[in-house]
Amino acid sequence: MNPYDIKSLVVLNMGVISIMEKNVITALILTTAAGLSTTIGSILGLFLRKPGPRFMSATLGFSAGIMLMVSFAELLQEGIKAIGFLSAHIGFFAGILGMFLIDVSVPHDYIGQHDRSGTKDQQRLIKTGLFLALGIGIHNFPEGMVTFAGAMEDLNLGTAIAFAIAIHNIPEGLAISIPVYAATGSRQKAFLWSFLSGIAEPIGAIIAAAFLVPILTQSLLGWMLAIVAGIMVFISLDELLPVSRSFGIDHLPILGAIAGMAVMTLSIWILR
User: Fold this and answer.
1) In sequence order, what DSSP letters do the residues of 167-181 get, joined into one string?
2) Domain count for the chain
3) Are 128 and 116 in contact (CB under 8 A)?
4) What is the pLDDT of residue 45?
5) What span, in angstroms and rounded, lies between the C-alpha atoms of 210 and 72?
6) What angle separates helix 38-48 from helix 187-198, to the nearest 10 degrees?
7) How confident is the model at residue 118 (pLDDT cuts 50, 70, 90)?
């Protein structure tokens, strides 16, 4: 081989590696920002103490709409392009099943789903906050892989996913901070627990980067995106919408969901 050809090949390979490293860093930044948006909800919770049912209902419905639109309009479609219709849907339903198993194994609940206004039992409130932080943290872990996989496929797709996850992480931060602050009176503890649940997302992304990047192929990415679509649909239908409706505000959850779909449709169109 001509020495100049070898030099050109080395330069090309170095350029590919540099682009890959840049994509990994960008994906990790997006995931960290999405995960730590729980702290936004935590800060709001420290000021609101007990957010109104209309606020929680609309916000959770809005989050569900965003996640559903991203799943069906972007993630599943990209999976079908990469691995075919049947394989993508197998991955999609595998994601739903996997999230179902996590959901039934780890109890978690949102403040406001049940009336706790009359209780003065601090231990109960602390326990509630702990289970919330643990459950949401475990649910956030695969979401970190979601954002990472999307950003590795396409930066615009990763940005859209990060935005969707960030929006639905805000009420989760609220849910954690409210019982902890009510029980302990400590803003620091309420903020810390919310932060720890959110940090699970960049941890999930780091693990994905460490183990998946060396073997990442278009086919593997297609499987990941299809599975992720299933995960996000399950979270929307089993968690966000039911909790949104539990506040008893007629039509507000579905209006929030429609608004979320519209906003995400607009953001996907702008990012293309």
Assistant:
1) HHHHHHHHHHHHHHH
2) 1
3) yes
4) 72
5) 28
6) 160
7) very low
Report whether pLDDT(166) > 80: yes
Whether residue 120 lies inside any domain: the answer is yes
**Side chain identity, residue 203:** I
56 occurs within a structural domain? yes
Element (H, E) at 146: helix 122-153
Give 214-229 as a 3 state SS string: HHCCHHHHHHHHHHHH
pLDDT digit string, tens, across residues 193-205: 888 888 888 887 8
Is the Cβ–Cβ distance between 222 and 81 less than 8 Å?
A: yes
In Å, how far are 53, 75, 140, 213, 221 from 79, measured between CA atoms?
37, 6, 21, 18, 8
Residue 108 is encoded by which pair of tokens? Answer: 């978690």
Domain hosting residue 203, numbered range: 10-271
Tokens of 105: 């194994």
* Residue 169 token pair: 């992480």
Share of the chain above pLDDT 70, in %: 74
Residue whose pair of structure tokens reads 């995400």 in the numeric block: 264
Query: For residue 186, is it left (φ>0), alpha (ψ between -120 and 50) or beta?
Result: beta
Q: Look-up: residue for tokens 């702990």?
A: 130
Give the pTM.
0.65
Which amino acid does the sequence have at 55? F
Q: Which two tokens stand for residue 177?
A: 């901070």
Residue written as token pair 């990790």: 28
Q: Kindly state whether residue 1 falls inside one of the protein's structural domains.
A: no
Question: At 241, which amino acid appears?
Answer: L
- Residue 114 gets which letter from DSSP? S
* 23 domain-assigned: yes
